[in-house]
Amino acid sequence: MTYAEQLNQITREIEAAKADVRRWQEAASNLAQAASQARAKNQSFGRGFVSAVLGSKFRAAARSAAAASNAAIAKEVAAKRATITVEKRLAQERVRKLQSRLAELRRVAKAERPPAPRLPRGKEFVSTADYASILKELTEAHARGVLTTDEFHEKKQRLMKAF
User: Fold this and answer.
1) Cα distance between residue 9 and residue 5, in whole Å
2) CB-CB contact of 84 with 31 (8 Å)
3) Per-residue pLDDT tens for 127-162?
4) 28, 81 in Cβ contact below 8 A?
């Protein structure tokens, strides 16, 4: 696999891992919102006209049922939150490892890459054959992944201006 292919693959993996982190963050937010709505629904039960008609024993039973329901909601939320936290941390760790791999790949590629062809500067005399050979070297360096596309075009423009 070429350097560019490895770079693209790791970049895609990093984006996928970051998307996983965002999904887990969203899951935590949705869980909190759903739990809040469920607790609010529990609190409203046993209030209003019906509770006034049925009396204090009904209201006490409704409050007791709401408290039990809220405790069950809290227990369920705690279990889900623990799972979400673990999964989110795993996804974050995966992002860190992939970013580290990407940095290492770039360091190795930079250390292994031969120097880019030297372009003529100033008023140095260079023959047409020299320009052709320099252009060929630039093209080969770009094909090997030594030069990025932007670097290749920049050096090619400088070469053409010097010609």
Assistant:
1) 6
2) yes
3) 666 778 888 888 888 888 778 889 889 888 887 777
4) yes
Residues 13, 98 contacting (CB under 8 angstroms): yes
Both tokens assigned to 42: 């529990």
Q: How far apart are CA 66 and CA 74, in angstroms?
A: 12
Give the 3-state secondary structure of residue 7: helix
Q: What is the DSSP letter of 1?
A: -
Do residues 146 and 116 touch, judged by C-beta distance below 8 A?
Answer: yes
Domain assignments of the chain as residue spans, ordered by start: 3-112, 128-162
> Given pLDDT bands bounded at 50, 70 and 90, which one contains residue 1?
confident
Give residues with Cβ within 8 angstroms of 151, minimum separation 6: 116, 142
pTM of the model as a whole: 0.56
Q: Per residue in 39-55, pLDDT tens?
A: 887 776 666 666 666 77
Task: Count how many residues are written for the chain.
Answer: 163
